[in-house]
């Protein structure tokens, strides 16, 4: 993890997300004009989540995992909880969920293959380092402007005591519709839990809807009980290739010991098969427009430094790839996913 920025070295921009951990802002480094994301919390639970994410990311270095740029912890006001700011690299295209929505709600089969392969490479890196992601879904997969994929939001991640198939009990964290049945039953945590969530994420990419979408959100506990205790599987996408359906059958096995591993899935025909699909490039679709679009000081949030900064000064330091699209319309999301709200209002739970 890089040395943390001092409070005087960066400026907080507009709020672009919120979640169970706290809030997310876009921010700018005053010295070089580079953009990054700040995840902030002043609650005990939120601080624990951000500290966990920082600790996990500090030990990782992979092109398939989002980079942590540092953190900052300040003393709480009036004896309250300290405030944690976690600095995360900026991914211009937002989340895979944002991209799917921008492209009509679901992705083509060939693009799904390419993205799934890169997600698997990120999971392989985590699992080889003894880490379970714990909350894999489209909203927690970020894309750069060139379409590169990085896994993000590791607030639910856990490092297993060993690479064995037993992990921590008494720990429940994730988004219910993407969580493996044994996790919802609060049984031993294992790498295979990520494989189940991967299958749910592929369904999400292929349908543009949450897995288990037929359950709705009117009765959360009933849905959780059904996922945890029944013998059913989420509905597979229609008009999906046989190799894709077989891939899902390898991921969505209720017995975690029978699920395929990351290495096995990387060699599955659905992933290894030839495809002419290329990752779309999103720079023209998602790049911030200008300093004004970044929202410096316009979100009602007090800046980390008291000096007023001239827009023209900062504008001269904004990368050209950002400045040249000023006439385009800004998207709603550019950042690590909103941890609290996922598709159809399912929430990330932490215990």
From TrEMBL:
<dbReference type="InterPro" id="IPR011009">
    <property type="entry name" value="Kinase-like_dom_sf"/>
</dbReference>
<protein>
    <submittedName>
        <fullName>Protein kinase, ATP binding site-containing protein</fullName>
    </submittedName>
</protein>
<dbReference type="InterPro" id="IPR052751">
    <property type="entry name" value="Plant_MAPKKK"/>
</dbReference>
<comment type="similarity">
    <text>Belongs to the protein kinase superfamily.</text>
</comment>
<feature type="region of interest" description="Disordered">
    <location>
        <begin position="328"/>
        <end position="351"/>
    </location>
</feature>
<keyword id="KW-0067">ATP-binding</keyword>
<dbReference type="GO" id="GO:0005524">
    <property type="term" value="F:ATP binding"/>
</dbReference>
<feature type="compositionally biased region" description="Polar residues">
    <location>
        <begin position="338"/>
        <end position="351"/>
    </location>
</feature>
<feature type="domain" description="Protein kinase">
    <location>
        <begin position="10"/>
        <end position="271"/>
    </location>
</feature>
<feature type="compositionally biased region" description="Basic and acidic residues">
    <location>
        <begin position="328"/>
        <end position="337"/>
    </location>
</feature>
<feature type="binding site">
    <location>
        <position position="39"/>
    </location>
    <ligand>
        <name>ATP</name>
    </ligand>
</feature>
<keyword id="KW-0723">Serine/threonine-protein kinase</keyword>
<dbReference type="Pfam" id="PF00069">
    <property type="entry name" value="Pkinase"/>
</dbReference>
<keyword id="KW-0547">Nucleotide-binding</keyword>
<dbReference type="InterPro" id="IPR008271">
    <property type="entry name" value="Ser/Thr_kinase_AS"/>
</dbReference>
<dbReference type="InterPro" id="IPR017441">
    <property type="entry name" value="Protein_kinase_ATP_BS"/>
</dbReference>
<dbReference type="GO" id="GO:0007165">
    <property type="term" value="P:signal transduction"/>
</dbReference>
<keyword id="KW-0808">Transferase</keyword>
<dbReference type="GO" id="GO:0004674">
    <property type="term" value="F:protein serine/threonine kinase activity"/>
</dbReference>
<keyword id="KW-0418">Kinase</keyword>
<dbReference type="InterPro" id="IPR000719">
    <property type="entry name" value="Prot_kinase_dom"/>
</dbReference>
